[in-house]
Design a protein that fits this description.
Mean pLDDT of chain B: 92
Distance between the termini of chain B: 21 Å
Number of domains of chain B: 2
Number of strands of chain B: 14
Number of strands of chain A: 17
Number of helices of chain B: 9
Strand order of the largest sheet of chain B: 3-4-2-1-5-6-7
Strand content of chain A: 25-35%
Number of domains of chain A: 3
Radius of gyration of chain B: 18 Å
Structural class of chain A: alpha+beta
Mean pLDDT of chain A: 88
CATH class of the largest domain in chain B: Alpha Beta
Largest interface: A-B, 53 and 64 residues
Number of helices of chain A: 10
Low-confidence stretches of chain B: 246-255
CATH superfamily of the largest domain in chain B: Succinyl-CoA synthetase domains
Oligomer: heterodimer
Helix content of chain A: 25-40%
Largest sheet of chain B: 7 strands, mixed
CATH superfamily of the largest domain in chain A: Succinyl-CoA synthetase domains
CATH topology of the largest domain in chain B: Rossmann fold
Shape of chain B: globular
CATH architecture of the largest domain in chain B: 3-Layer(aba) Sandwich
Strand content of chain B: 15-25%
CATH architecture of the largest domain in chain A: 3-Layer(aba) Sandwich
Distance between the termini of chain A: 42 Å
Helix content of chain B: 25-40%
Chain lengths: 369, 287
């Protein structure tokens, strides 16, 4: 889950990381608060706001009012702007980049810093990006911050503040189960203060059970995808016309590959995951029907999700939900025989091979050759 | 010989009294696994499919000599369960549970490497050595004993591929589902190293997917250290960039971890790469 800049900055403040003075506006124009020049920044959970016109510099209250009115209500990369952050503009003599994230390959947290802040970290040359790996049981010790400060050729006047910023970031990273804490840029002001100009905070969705306080943001998803998420079903809308229901992401992707090979295109993909509840299967089917694919290809390899659970969900969807889409089903694995028995006498005849099932679905959808 | 699990493994199930724990304990016993104990706090003294249940891992290990644990407890309790197992002297821990927070996974991996404990998962289908034992949720009927070592990042896709191999009369030495999470206790390189050293394994099937760099790392290792023939399949060629395809490991971001990049890396390393899962059979047979 991506936090908004302002949400990240509030956390920074709580963890002793200095931020610019500012306030949030939902359309109101504060007349007494702001120091000019000021920044007006659209609050949307995505990058590239500046290029999209979501960030402006204003020098008086008239310009401020104009900017607030013009930015609120616009859309940035599909995200409607509901609020803007109005902040004092920080004059910096240097801009740093700093982040803590998860290194998948090394399987531990990684601390990265550079003196080339303010730009996209992808474009910072490798030799200018300093890295250190942090043992989660040890954390960011002072010597780690000292090493990093020397690597960045930092002046002694700011090294102490740098340690405080790094340790604050680390505590925050652990406390909120973050996948990423990024400050880009971290400004060094003319009077040698460190101030976080921007914030990027991503929280691990799997850890939200420990953090009830964070509201679920809608992010970059379609309304049906949101509905699916509320039902704890992985659901992705693509641009083809064949619906795919499978259990497991890998099997779903392998199924899409078979469809492509036969000239078809998966339009909606729905991953049942591991479930033993026929009701969830039924809901998944009805959700799929809402996306209006030409045909649904069901590919289940029973393990945790048993085949008879899926069959029973299918029967319920026919009975209670009036499901009338064409369906091709391929059902294998745990309790496969039970499922085949249950589906006898219905219009679903399970196919054994995935290749045959994919071909049949493409034919019904009218694609391929 | 097989790897990671065999007829000598004494298996303990943490979370044995839960629905999944109970069901899969039975299936594992039917497969031939020596399930010696289960652990559920507060349920000590009970039996599940004739397996004695203990309150703590320490007590279970003391009474039964268990050396391998399968974790079936809900995600919020996995970190503690894994630490408990490692503290009690368990040497191989297989974490089946999905949706384990990545911070917990990193703590488990850090501790296991300090203690020299082998951790597989989280979010994995487990490990099975046909004819010997399995600590897995993979259906029993799809296996056949043989000489192909299978290693996969996916769950049900592993079933798909093992099933196709068996249907084609090709048996397996050990099938290892390493799990699709961002941080896993065991990666491709670890398993390739085991397969390369294993006398029963003559050929290797590697099943990867988009996202991360685990397949690229595997390719580098194959080029350097693996002399046994490797056939691979990478799921997700038809997946659109930037969309999460159901689990965290499978996200393409910033052009890294694409199917094309992984396929090229593996081909350059001398592995054969299948277009769709069914092709794996043709590639394995050719070897």
């Amino acid at each position: 889950m991506n936090l908004l800049e302002v949400e990240g900055k509030r956390l920074f403040f709580d963890y002793g990381i200095p931020i610019p003075m500012g306030r949030l506006s939902h359309g109101d124009v504060p007349s007494d608060f702001v120091r000019y020049p000021a920044m007006v920044k659209a609050q949307v959970p995505t990058g590239g706001r500046g290029k999209a016109g979501g960030i402006r510099i204003v020098s008086d209250v008239t310009e401020l009012g104009k900017a607030v009115r013009e930015i609120i209500g616009t859309s940035i990369k599909g995200h409607k702007v509901w609020e803007v952050l109005i902040e004092e503009k920080i004059e910096s003599r240097k801009e740093l980049y700093i982040s803590i994230t998860v290194d998948r390959a090394k399987r531990m947290p990684i601390l990265m810093a550079s003196t080339m802040g303010g730009m996209d970290v992808e474009s910072v040359p490798e030799e200018k990006l300093f890295k250190d790996w942090i043992d989660p049981w040890v954390g960011v010790q002072p010597f780690v911050a000292k090493d990093m400060a020397y690597a960045l050729e930092m002046e002694p006047e700011i090294a102490g503040q740098f340690l405080a910023v790094l340790q604050g970031m680390w505590r925050l990273f652990q406390d909120i189960d973050a996948e990423l804490i990024e400050i880009n840029p971290l400004a060094v002001t003319n009077d040698n203060r460190l101030i976080a100009i921007d914030s990027k905070v991503v929280i691990d969705d799997d850890a939200l059970f420990r953090h009830e306080g964070f509201k679920k943001l809608s992010g970059d998803i379609t309304p049906l995808e949101k509905k699916a998420r509320d039902m704890e079903i992985a659901f992705v809308q693509l641009d083809g016309d064949i619906g795919v229901i499978a259990n497991g992401a890998g099997l779903t992707m392998a199924t899409l590959d078979f469809l492509s090979m036969h000239g078809g295109r998966g339009g909606v993909f729905l991953d049942l995951g591991g479930t033993d509840d026929p009701e969830k299967v039924k809901k998944a089917l009805l959700l799929m029907a809402e996306a209006k694919p030409k045909v649904v290809l069901i590919n289940i390899f029973g393990g945790i999700t048993k085949c008879d659970t899926v069959a029973s969900g299918l029967l319920q969807a026919f009975k209670d939900g009036g499901l009338d889409l064409p369906i091709v089903a391929r059902i294998r694995g745990v309790n496969e025989q039970e499922a085949v028995e249950m589906l006898k006498g219905t219009r679903i005849q399970p196919v054994l091979s995935l290749d045959d099932a994919a071909r049949a679905a493409v034919k019904i959808a009218g694609g391929g050759g | 010989m097989a790897v990671l699990i065999n007829e000598k493994s004494k298996v303990l199930i943490q979370g044995i009294t839960g629905y999944q724990g109970m069901f899969h304990t039975l299936k594992m016993k039917e497969f031939g696994t020596d399930v010696v104990a289960g652990v559920t706090p507060g349920k000590g003294g009970q039996k599940v499919h004739d397996v004695p249940v203990f309150n703590t891992v320490r007590a279970a290990v003391k009474e039964t000599g268990a050396n391998t644990s399968g974790i079936f407890v809900p995600a919020p309790f996995v970190l503690d369960a894994a630490m408990e197992a490692m503290d009690a002297g368990i040497t191989t821990v297989v974490i089946i549970t999905e949706h384990v927070p990545v911070h917990d996974a990193m703590k488990i991996v850090s501790l296991s490497s300090k203690l020299g404990v082998r951790v597989i998962g989280p979010n994995c289908p487990g490990v099975a050595s046909p004819g010997k034992a399995k600590l897995a949720i993979i259906p029993n009927q799809i296996f056949k004993k043989g000489d192909v070592g299978v290693v996969s990042r996916s769950g049900t896709l592993t079933y798909e591929i093992v099933d196709s191999l068996t249907q084609a009369g090709i048996g397996q030495s050990t099938c290892v589902g390493i799990g699709g999470d961002r941080v896993s206790g065991t990666n491709f390189v670890d398993v390739l190293e085991l397969f390369q050293a294993d006398r029963q394994t003559k050929r290797i099937v590697l099943v990867g997917e988009i996202g991360g760099s685990a397949e690229e790392d595997a390719a580098r290792y194959i080029a350097k250290e693996v002399t046994k023939p490797v056939s691979a399949y990478i799921a997700g060629k038809s997946a659109p960039p930037g969309k999460r395809m159901g689990h965290a490991g499978a996200i393409i971001s910033r052009g890294a971890g694409t199917a094309e990049g992984k396929i090229k890396a593996l081909k350059d390393a001398g592995a054969e790469v299948a277009d769709v899962t069914a092709d794996i059979i043709r590639l394995v047979k050719r070897e």
